[in-house]
Design brief:
globular
Length: 168
């Protein structure tokens, strides 16, 4: 049973990643999704985070939040993207909110890869996640989070209206 679920999850993830790499009309695309990899590095006590989504969707969110003439290939965009992510993406261990730190960002075709980290001195026990990325822009937005810790993998799916979810 676990193997079937794992293979199905990998197939869905592969299809979504392939779809994110396809060229799209910059004005719109048919679906709105993000794929996030959240991995706990026990040696460094860090949560390593990679977010992949459409570049034009992130630009739309930044414009909606008041930024004008936003282009993800400008230096100013790094600070704007981090500020935005701190509002919509939150990891907590117990009552403590982990502080997201900027690592970098890459534009690959029509997608953007955003790299973050967060110090988690006590690991991810009692950890929860809120991922409202792009929900304020697209009602059909779906955010998939693949969590890796202690050699185990789990996936969480966030849709508009979802609350905080426990990291498994």
């Amino acid at each position: 049973m676990k193997r079937t679920v794992h293979i199905s999850s990998l197939l869905i993830l592969s299809l979504l990643l392939a779809a994110l790499a396809l060229p799209t009309n910059t004005a719109a695309h048919r679906y709105h999704t993000s794929v996030t990899r959240l991995e706990y590095n026990a040696e460094d006590h860090m949560v390593e985070i990679t977010v992949q989504t459409f570049a034009d969707d992130i630009e739309a969110a930044l414009k909606r939040s008041g930024a004008s003439n936003v282009s993800l290939d400008s230096r100013k965009s790094n600070e704007l993207v981090l500020e935005y992510l701190r509002k919509v993406f939150e990891i907590r261990t117990g009552e403590a909110r982990l502080e997201l730190e900027w690592i970098g960002m890459e534009l690959k075709g029509h997608s953007v890869w955003i790299y973050l980290q967060a110090k988690a001195s006590n690991g991810l026990s009692n950890a929860s996640l809120r991922n409202n990325l792009l929900f304020e822009v697209f009602p059909d937005q779906v955010n998939i989070v693949n969590v890796i810790r202690d050699g185990k993998r789990a996936s969480l799916v966030f849709k508009r209206g979802d609350a905080v979810k426990e990291l498994q």
